[in-house]
Amino acid sequence: MPEVIFPGPEGRLEGRYHPNGAPDAPIAIVLHPDPQFGGTMNNRVVYNLHYAFHRMGFTVLRFNFRGVGRSQGEYDQGVGELSDAASALDYLQTLNPNSKHCWVAGFSFGAWIGMQLLMRRPEITGFISVAPPANRYDFSFLAPCPSSGLIINGTADRVAPPKDTANLVAKLREQRGIVITHEQVEGADHFFKDEEEHMKPMIETVQTYVRRRLGEASR
Fold it and tell me: Measured between alpha carbons, how far is residue 209 from residues 5, 108, 128, 162, 213 in Å?
């Protein structure tokens, strides 16, 4: 998978780009957790989401937010990181102008950024939010949420407690015109540390959901 460097708002951004052979393949970007707590594009959840999308025929880009790895700039409390995500999507769309479907996936802090990106970019047709930290960040900007998507979390998550995730889902489900699917992985912590018991079921749930959505769109 080629390493890529592309322009961001505060200088270059470092990414990993995994193209699919089809010129009209769907595209997806994957957003990593909080850089303040060691989050990078090589986080296990992000890495697994990246390859899950590629196995489903997507062209995929994951990247480091500003100040992480070889990406230039400094941490900006989510404001600049949202601009980074928009630049990454611009870059991906420029390389894939014929793509008919555009998805964003994010883990933890990356889920918060990804759902903000939804509000900016009407071309996003679906989202995956893994363990969104609804206890730490304000998600009230999702009014209305412009796209249907999947929210998935572990029942033993102490970083982003399940009750806060459930409250977020309940608020989003009050809105008309979208469908918010909520799944939980029994016993999983915030990081889905157990590969077989937690990570694998989480990824399988994501793939089942995305494949169903793509199938519905092709009818």
Answer: 31, 19, 9, 20, 6
Task: Give Cβ neighbours of residue 135 (< 8 Å, ≥ 6 apart).
Answer: 160, 161, 164
* Strand order across the beta sheet in which 149-154 lies: 3-8, 11-18, 59-63, 27-31, 102-107, 126-130, 149-154, 180-185
C-alpha 77/C-alpha 175 separation (Å) is 28
Residue 156 domain boundaries: 3-217
Question: For residue range 88-140, what is the model confidence (pLDDT) as tens digits?
Answer: 999 999 999 999 999 999 999 999 999 999 999 999 999 999 999 999 999 99
Relative to beta strand 27-31, strand 102-107 is parallel
Q: How many helices (H) and strands (E) does the chain have?
A: 5, 8
What is the DSSP-derived secondary structure letter of residue 199? I
> Rounded to an integer, what distance in angstroms lies between the CA atom of residue 34 and that of residue 50?
17
Which residue reads 């009014």 in tokens? 143
- Give the closest residue to 36 by CA, choosing from 66, 10, 62, 72: 66
Rounded mean pLDDT, 182-201: 98
Count structural domains, the chain: 1
Prior bond to 19 cis, omega within 30? no
Distance between CA atoms of 125 and 76, rounded to whole angstroms? 27
